[in-house]
Design a protein that fits this description.
Elements (H helix, E strand, L loop, with lengths): L10 E6 L6 H14 L3 E4 L4 H4 E3 L2 E2 L2 H12 L3 E5 L7 H6 L26 H18 L5 E5 L14 H15 L2 H8 L26 H27 L6 E2 L1 E2 L9 H4 L7 E3 L9 H15 L5 E5 L18 H11 L2 E6 L25 H15 L12 E4 L2 H7 L11 H14 L4 E4 L10 E4 L7 H12 L3 E5 L21 H4 L1 E8 L5 E6 L6 E5 L1 E7 L3 E6 L8 E8 L2 E6 L8 H12 L10 E7 L3 E8 L5 E4 L2 E3 L5 E2 L2 E4 L4 E7 L11
Parallel strand pairs: 1-2, 1-11, 2-5, 5-6, 6-7, 8-9, 9-10, 10-11, 12-13, 12-14, 14-15, 15-22
Antiparallel strand pairs: 3-4, 16-19, 17-18, 17-20, 20-21, 21-22, 23-24, 24-29, 25-28, 26-27, 26-29
Helix pairs in contact: 5-8, 6-7
Bound molecules: alpha-D-galactopyranose (2 copies).
Amino acid sequence: MSAFPALPGIAYGGDYNPEQWPRETWREDVALMREAGVNLVSVGIFSWALLETSEGVFDFAWLDEVLDLLHENGIAVDLGTPTASPPAWFFAAHPDARVRNRDGVVMGFGSRGMASHSSPAYRSAIVRIAHALARRYARHPAVVLWHVHNEYGVPVGEDYSEQSVRAFQGWLLDRYGSLDGLNRAWGTAFWGQHYTDWEHVGAPAAAPSVVNPAQRLDFARFTDHQLRECFVAERDAIRAHATQPITTNFMANQAWATDLWKWAPLVDVVADDHYLWAADPDAHLGLSIAADLSRSLGGGAPWILMEHSTSAVNWQPRNIAKRPGEMARNSLAHLGRGADAILFFQWRAGRSGAEKFHSAMLPHAGTRSRVWREVVDLGAKLERLAEVRSSEVVADVAILWDFESFWAQDLEWRPSVDLSHNERIRAYYERLWRDGITADFVLPGHDLSRYKLVVAPAQYLLSVADAANLTRYVEQGGTLLVSYFSGVVDENDAVHEGGFLAPLQDALGVLVEEHLPLREGERCSVRWTGDDAATLPADVWQEALQLHGAEVVARYADGPGADGPAITRHRFGSGTGWYVSTRLDAIALRRVMTDVYADAGLVPRGLPEGLEVVTRHGAEADYVVAINHLEVPARLPADGVELLTGAEVRTFLDVPAGEVAVIRTARSAGGGGRPPE
Ligand code: GLA
Ligand code: GLA
């Protein structure tokens, strides 16, 4: 893990698709790349049909020329394997190698991502092209990184083809050892699903009513497993020839087919793609979540922002252009949260195909454009930030993020359609963000001992072993906050013996007797039991709680749970377990979190809400990255040097509205961080 490509300073660039352009354009491209300070481009990601023109027949001449030209101009290459988009000849020879979706529709050609990852023909073809590319370019001086495939799991992950069903049966046999084991784990006594022959076990295809959720959860696990096997096959083919780091581009909080905790140990460096959700007025919060998750996946090591956009994307219902200054705020927010490479999709806007309305570093309007000027300006900024490279973010708070739990919660027939793990994580994250507290993401089974506070906004699926880990964390002095609809089922989507939340009863001192979801649009409120008698608005959900040692912090003032406990606090061992059984928004959560921070020994810095501040700890200095999302200047207490302007900072810096400051300051273990070892 964590071999960063050999480049000085911060990497800057994007996807480069020269095969879509005549040769004359290539010369202009490299000249403009130099003007913008580009030092790394990703090449070849969709080039299979032009590299292997028929089975086993390769044409590398054009790619040789491209790599040589880039190298002569001092631009390094992240070389892609083109396996997200096999050629027409491949599907003509292997029509069965296409994905069949849940409704039984076989995917057509002329797009991308239509190949079945369980197809033996596909698997041998990807290994062949990976070997061929690595054999040819392993020692090319331009190549500093390998980029396998593109965004595993999108546009399709699950595959219901015959070969996939066969592979699923084998995967299940490995997991359960016997049909009895499978029948038990899936609870097949329900609705007469009991199996007597492996041949009868299928993928959870479309059916008249809800399909067994345990079967669907296992199919999600299996899908992830198949995708990983394909990655590993390509990675190992490359490794047979090449020594550069190998990665693939994740979509940390924007796609759900891959369990990235299982992927992260397989790559040499974490790389992530992130796109703003235009419909979200606070899309920078989603960005921060993605960046913190990317960093967490790599255990805190610097990571690569492999793709983001200079302005609009092309695939949302309304593709909102970024406002002046927004691109730099976005890019530097990723950098603040640990990215040492700032890359875009894509270098030059494409004239043809499905993505021609996507923004690029070099837009259709050319160099006489705002976007180009901002791209050149960002390149210059990143040059001034070269010394930030390799420094690390250290967080005191962890938020649970568990893809398996999300897969399970997202299945049908949950107690309310208003339950959303995304929404809950975002609300708690936003509270921390507004309080200037940086968070990591973790699995419930991880070592949590270094965190002062662990938040579980949405841990619907929780194994008994993971619950024991959380319980130990509290017992040994940690502060744990658990939100509603957590600890409901085990790894087979079966309700815990003893009822909802039973495995966390010791840590939290409560059990959930009954779920009490609210009607659409219904509001309720919770009333504090202490002196201040605060009342806060809530909605979506209540629960009937049984107290088993916890004190009641707030009660339901109204609604189906009226007068019952809503928020509880429990001293257990030398720590504290909080339980919040209703939906409070990020504003209402302030009242709760103030007390939770006090239990955890966390002291918010009292910065203006909307001034995003993250510290990267370097070997010789700390780097404070401050992004002002407000429309007025924001004051940041600091001493040091502002690296973008070179200005000395004494006592404080007023960060102008919409601007970013990066301050080199004395290295410290304070400010919520721990210096790197
Ligand atoms: C129907 C079915 C039952 C059960 C209930 C649940 O009545 O006959 O098997 O599914 O719905 O409400
Ligand atoms: C993804 C893909 C790219 C491109 C961009 C457009 O991230 O990896 O190939 O399609 O989206 O936003």
